[in-house]
Amino acid sequence: MPRLKALLLSLATLCAPVALAQSANPAVPGTINYIEGSASIDGRVLNQKSVGSVSLEPGQLLQTANGRVEVLLTPGVFLRMGENSALKLISPTY
Description:
alpha+beta; five-stranded antiparallel β-sheet; 5 strands
């Protein structure tokens, strides 16, 4: 019986990080992955806390002034914007 408890405890310890990782926000097209300098979405200024938590919605305009931004298009495909650039998201579906 003590071996069974040890085995169950070991399995629970190994599975806990996987369960926690699955609760993270899924990557969706339009997600902001990187910001350097000044950038905004429809005039709303982005900061480092926006990375990974802010996504472009259809019709929104992402602009850089003296900055750079990286946007997720599809898993593994990114769009990198340089200074004085603008991007309007038409549709997040492919």
